[in-house]
Amino acid sequence: METTTAETPARNAALSKPVDPVKAIGSAKIDRDSRETVGTITVDNPRMTTRNVNVWYGAKQAIKDISLDIAKNEVAALIGPSGCGKSTYLRCLNRMNDTVDGCRVTGEFYLDGEDIYAKNIDVVPLRARVGIVFQKPNPFPKSIYENVAYGPRIHGLANNKTELDEIVHSSLERAGLFNEVKDRLDQPGTGLSGGQQQRLCIARTIAVSPEVILMDEPCSALDPIATARIEELIDELRENYSIVIVTHSMQQAARVSQRTAYFHLGDLIEVGPTSQIFTNPRHKLTEEYITGRFG
Amino acid sequence: MTEHTEGHTVKRYDGELAHLRGMVLEMGGLVLAQVDQSIILLEGLSIDLANGIIIRDKDVNELDVRIHHEILELLARRAPVATDLRTVLSVAKVITELERMGDEIVKISRQVIEITNTEHPPLDKKMLRDAKAMGKMARTMLRDALNSFDSLDLDQAIRVARWDLELDNEFQAAMRRLTTYILEDYRNIGHTLNIVLIIKAMERVGDHTKNIAEYVVYMVKGKDVRHTDLSKLFDEVYAAN
Question: Which of A125, A210, B91, B108 is the Cys-Cys partner for A131 at CB 3.0 to 4.6 Å?
Answer without folding.
Answer: A210
